[in-house]
Amino acid sequence: MKILKKLGIGILAIVAILLIVAVFIKKEYAVEREVSINKPLADVFAYVRNIKNQNYYSVWNLKDPNSKQDFKGTDGTVGFIASWDSKNDEVGQGEQEIKNIVEGSRIDMELRFTRPFKATDQGYLITESVNENQTKVKWGFTGKMDYPMNLMLVLMDMEGMIGNDMQAGLTNLKNILEK
Q: Would you say residue 97 has pLDDT above 90?
């Protein structure tokens, strides 16, 4: 009985320490990757502004081509919503909405995940002209994990997990547009 009592007190102490540590750990994360594409800015922007085109370059979309998709509004315009529902837990369920477009330069999106976990993140695509035949594309995500879930940021390598998939997606985008 004494062993169980000591074990219980030990577990409670560890949980208490973790909860105290979580107060001081960051709650936000940001991941950004970029690629240079040998195409003029207008061509690149015209392609990336359409969310449906992510089916061809986004690693997450490519993980389950049979994912159920639904679209509301006009693709490439503010207010367009693309939703997905997949049995693959790496893809899950959620929706993406275009929140703002700066023509030829930036697209801001809100991603609302419902499964395998609930979260709302911000995503963006930025295009910058390097020269008349080359464009830099930056793809980024920002998000927040509330206390005490922010402890997961210590255990999860968001840079690696999300960043590697984003870089692979940008490489796919480059290959598609440079064909």
A: yes
Residues composing the chain? 179
The Cα 25–Cα 77 span in angstroms is 37
CA distance linking residue 161 with residue 96, whole number of Å: 19
pLDDT of residue 22: 67
What CA–CA distance (Å, rounded) separates 2 from 30?
Answer: 47
The rounded distance, in Å, linking the Cα atoms of 145 and 115 is 15
Those residues with Cβ within 8 angstroms of residue 39's Cβ, 6 or more apart along the chain or in another chain: 133, 134, 135, 177, 178
Q: Is residue 150 part of a domain?
A: yes
Range of the domain at 38: 27-177
**Average pLDDT score over the chain:** 91
Residues whose CB falls within 8 Å of the CB of residue 36, separated by 6 or more in sequence, listed in order: 130, 134, 135, 136, 137, 174
3 part of a folded domain: no
Between 54 and 89, residue with greater pLDDT: 54
**Would residue 19 count as lying in a domain?**
no
pLDDT score, position 96: 97
Q: Which amino acid is at 55?
A: N
